[in-house]
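One-letter codes give the sequence; the fold follows as tokens. An example follows:
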Amino acid sequence: MIEALPMERLKILLVSEDRCESLSLSAMLQNLGHTPITCAHDVSEAVSKTSALSPDLVVVDVTMDDCCGLQTASGILEQHALPIVLITSFIEPELIDQADALGISGYMAKPISQKDIQSVLVLARSRFRYLQSLRSEILDLKNMMRTRKLIEQAKGLLMERESIPEAEAFKRIQCMSRNQNIPMAAISEAIIMTDKLTHKTKVNKNRSRERRDCAQERSQE
């Protein structure tokens, strides 16, 4: 079941070079209780107006003279996380694939009818929230995997350096994290970095000693 669109008026930025189409779409959006805001005509203008006006949603015409609507959508999404709906004459598989890869939230096929707009907006906002949630879950998973990898590496270093079992190494990291109120990943990174610095210091000392020994040998010749 499609959730009802919130009653507040949505601010919707229109990006199109077709003045007649923009005026028609603006009128339909107003009839639905939304607020269409100033029209942008290219990538830079679309991005700057998105930054300045903070729309709730952006509608982009795919066919533009100076650039592809997908480029405009991409430029906006690089700097702003918000739903974008594409207007297109033909919804082709290749276009859908490219748009999905960018994170486009919805589509409107020409000719646009007012009765279809509301459902498109609802679906676009719903899909946007879903994609944002999915990205958040993926990021959390990546962070969890990174944390696990760091802890495993830090445990190995402690086990080797202190000659302690794995459980004891993990317990030490856990205790340091709790006592210092620092995430275990940060504690593990510190252990790894300390080991690298210690190793580098030893290498430098060995090299210095080797150079000193060589210098002494040459002086004795």
